[in-house]
Amino acid sequence: MKKIGILKQSFDPISLQDIFFVKDQIKKMNLDEVYLIILDMNNLVNISNREEMISLAIQNEDNIILTKFYDISNDNNILLVNNEATIIRNKILKGNFSLLDEKVKNYILKNSLYLEEIVKNTLSKKRYEHSMSVANLAVDLAKSHNYDINKAYITGILHDITKEMPYEYTMEIMKKYFKELLVEPYPLYHAYTGAVFIKNNLLIDDEEILKAIYFHTIGTHEDTLSKIIYIADKLDPSRGYDSSKQIEFSKKDLNEGFKLVKEEAQNYIKEKNK
Question: Which of 1, 115, 173, 243 could form a disulfide with 193 if both were Cys (CB 3.0 to 4.6 A apart)?
Fold first, then answer.
């Protein structure tokens, strides 16, 4: 009779460490197979998505099997406990995607999974709500202009991801990557550090997304996504003023809407600095 290991976890999401742990147990305990069983309690992502991610992570592992059932009468079954699972999960949910299999990471981004939780874990309630509102408006603008909705959502929800990072972190990134920009006002730095965080931590290498975040405070990059994010950030309904007319105008004409919003922002800054 086969010697089977049973690992019951939420796998929300499955990590590289989960796979390393299982392989290590197979070797140490001389197991024939390990069955992965998904626990469905207080999870962020539904079971079907988690099943897909597990399937991607184990597709080259013949002796690691995703299943819903196992023979409880088999005395050779051994229940496994991965004590590192929660620690690793918490790191992932703070934006460390290097702990994920690349195929799983790509699936997460393709389906916009966990991003809301990452933003919630990183930003204050007010900044989190702003990020969600910008993401929703970015999606509306993308729909109006036949642009990729998922990219608009990802960029919108992550645009302020380093807005509230400690001063020391911000300056470390600025000195390492953007020395020439240290002459600019500090409130602009989060756009530059955000692009670095998203590339280095979330492993997003889409140039449109990175540029849209990098330029979202100043609006000097004029591809479609950059315009969408600039407009969505400035016209975010949660800011507390009525921007409905500018939003509708921007839905009809993105280029003219971008020009209008940028002009209004520049005029506001001039008035503020008088």
Answer: 173
The Cα–Cα gap between 253 and 129 comes to: 27
Which of 265, 263, 264, 261 shows the shortest CA–CA distance to 231?
261
pLDDT in tens, 9-50: 999 999 999 999 999 999 999 999 999 999 988 899 999 999
CA-CA distance, 95 to 183, in Å (whole number)?
A: 29
Q: What would you measure as the largest C-alpha separation in the chain, in angstroms?
A: 83
The model's pLDDT over 153-169, given as tens digits with 9 standing for 90+, comes to 999 999 999 999 999 99
Query: Taking 90 as the threshold, does the pLDDT of residue 240 lie above it?
Result: no
DSSP annotation of 24 = H
Whether the ω angle into residue 185 lies within 30 degrees of 0, i.e. cis, is no
214 close to 161: Cβ distance less than 8 angstroms? no
Sketch out the chain's domains with CATH numbers.
4-89 (3.40.50.620), 114-269 (1.10.3210.10)
